[in-house]
Amino acid sequence: MAPVTSITANVNAQLSDALTAALPGTVGDALLRRSDRADFQANGILALAKKAKANPRELAAQVVSRITTGDVIKDIEVSGPGFLNVTITDKAITGNLAQRYADPDRLGVPRKDGAGVTVIDYAQPNVAKEMHVGHLRSAVIGDALRGMLDFTGEKTIGRHHIGDWGTQFGMLIQYLIENPGELAPASEVDGEQAMSNLNRVYKASRAVFDSDDGFKERARKRVVALQSGDKETLDLWQQFVDESKVYFYSVFEKLDMEVRDDEIVGESAYNDLMPQTARLLEESGVAVRSEGALVVFFDDIRGKDDQPVPLIVQKADGGFGYAASDLTAIRNRVVDLHATTLLYVVDVRQSLHFKMVFETARRAGWLGDEVTAHNMGYGTVLGADGKPFKTREGETVKLEDLLDEAVQRAAEVVREKAQDLTEDEIQERAAQVGIGAVKYADLSTSPNRDYKFDLDQMVSLNGDTSVYLQYAYARIQSILRKAGAVRPSAHPELELAPAERALGLHLDAFGDTVFEAAAEYAPHKLAAYLYQLASLYTSFYDQCPVLKADTTDQTENRLFLCDLTARTLHQGMALLGIRTPARL
């Protein structure tokens, strides 16, 4: 089906053409926004008139004289110092929505022309370590961004840059060599057992490492064996990775996220290529030797005593760190994956590191006009008290425990409201509501801001929560079931009530909102749209009887608005990675 042009885009185009005609040689931007006095208000005329040294009201009047009212624009008038109030016809609203309704898969939303390839680096746990609350935001935000970008037509490739390399593995592997059989094969354990095994081995090996100097020396030699590719060492290292993946998958499954095995590409994947990265940087002069280390300096990045802060590509002892693996990853993603955009969903505290990495890659020619990189630095998860989220004992909260508690709280809410659900259905809905609540609380906040993790608020039926949106969807499904033989059908000839118009215009803006949110990497804008949609639907439902409307045509048209609202909620929530149960 052909894409549907939104009414906003249609009116903007007409107004821009009129502005350009009124001021030849100038490209006008109407800057439409919703208004209490009309469906839209164009306020770009003031800025354009000031720039052209023209009278804004006179310019606005010229624009009005060039606009043809009728099928789309019902009325347009000048107000205030030069605003334009625009009223849309009922027929245009219902007609546009009918076209969207006829396209159940995409709701008339087009795919963008010239889409590129975006590699998204997100959800980065560490091998042999439990995932904690600090891993939540990267996973949830990255998954939502991927959903939105895919929907707009972008090709996305996930990269989970897991911590699977480094000195701690020498300790772990040496312990397994000296204590064989301590780690069961990954095929024989589930996620909980896998983490239990890893924790036990880690604690035991750490205790020996701290108390036995001989073991400590053997562990350090084991690191060298790992880096040099010793088969026995690599085989045991692979056991840790496989066991950890079993655990990772169990946590991501609770988060209702799909993580593909071929997209888990850890630090180890770049080990053999890091010497080449260092050589290329040194030969090109981008990196220089300083006190034995290979480093990159930046004029605008300085630390204490106003001294330059370097990016260390290679240590003086020949070892490589995060900078080398991140730069090698960029080369791989640009050359082998043909990425046009690199998107990193990483803690905002690593912003300086990635600023230096990106600048180094630009100097080396790996990033440029055709390939861009963006760090989606995100804020911290705080407790209800506004402090970093910790347990009562001051420890970091385990992600599994947090998710389990969210589902438990959601079960209480669902059970209280459930009328015809079995206990199994309550538990199924509780998982969808609880995990949705956690995700939505994160995604409805601007990523670069901290946010409070308050389960009581998250699972509330009132306010800006996913539960409110899910119940709005379930309510609509209930209405559609009660309608029986009367089916949703658009009636463009009908006059719309104010609440119907407001709902209809907002429904028509779904595609524009998704594109804006995807382009700005701003899932909170889509979340805000969905919350407003549910709120407008509540007003519509309160003011406009559906099943008891005055005529059958009116009932069908209002059922049509109900069903399109449900489809839009379902699609929008799905892009954010949140489910919408049909019964709650």
Short description:
The protein has helices at residues 7-22, 44-52, 56-65, 90-101, 136-152, 168-178, 191-211, 213-228, 231-254, 274-284, 322-335, 351-364, 399-417, 423-443, 455-458, 466-482, 498-508, 510-519, 523-543, 552-575; strands spanning 32-34, 40-42, 73-79, 83-88, 117-121, 155-159, 288-290, 293-296, 311-314, 341-344, 372-375, 381-382, 451-452.
Overview of the structural elements:
There is one protein chain. With 584 residues, the chain is α/β, with parallel strands linked by helices. The chain has 20 helices and 13 strands. Among the domains are: 82 residues, Arginyl tRNA synthetase N-terminal domain (Gyrase A, domain 2, 2-Layer Sandwich), CATH 3.30.1360; 96 residues; 177 residues, Isoleucyl-tRNA Synthetase, Domain 1 (Orthogonal Bundle). Helix 4 crosses helix 17, helix 6 packs across helix 7 and helix 17 packs antiparallel against helix 19. The protein is globular. It starts with 6 loop residues before the first helix and ends in a 9-residue tail after the last helix.
Keywords:
584 residues; Gyrase A, domain 2; alpha/beta
Summing up helix and strand content along with how strands pair, one would put the structural category as alpha/beta
Low-confidence stretches: none
Task: Examine the coordinates and then state which fold CATH places here, giving the name of the CATH topology of the domain at 399-575.
Answer: Isoleucyl-tRNA Synthetase, Domain 1
Number of DSSP helices? 20
CATH homologous superfamily of the domain at 399-575? Isoleucyl-tRNA Synthetase, Domain 1
CATH class of the domain at 399-575: Mainly Alpha
Main beta sheet: 4 strands, antiparallel
CATH architecture of the domain at 399-575: Orthogonal Bundle
Mean pLDDT: 92
| Percentage of residues in DSSP E strands | 5-15%
Q: Span between N and C termini?
A: 33 Å
The residue fraction in helices comes out at 40-55%
Read across the widest sheet, the strand sequence of neighbours is 1-2-4-3
Rg, nearest Å: 28 Å
* Number of distinct beta strands: 13
State the shape: globular
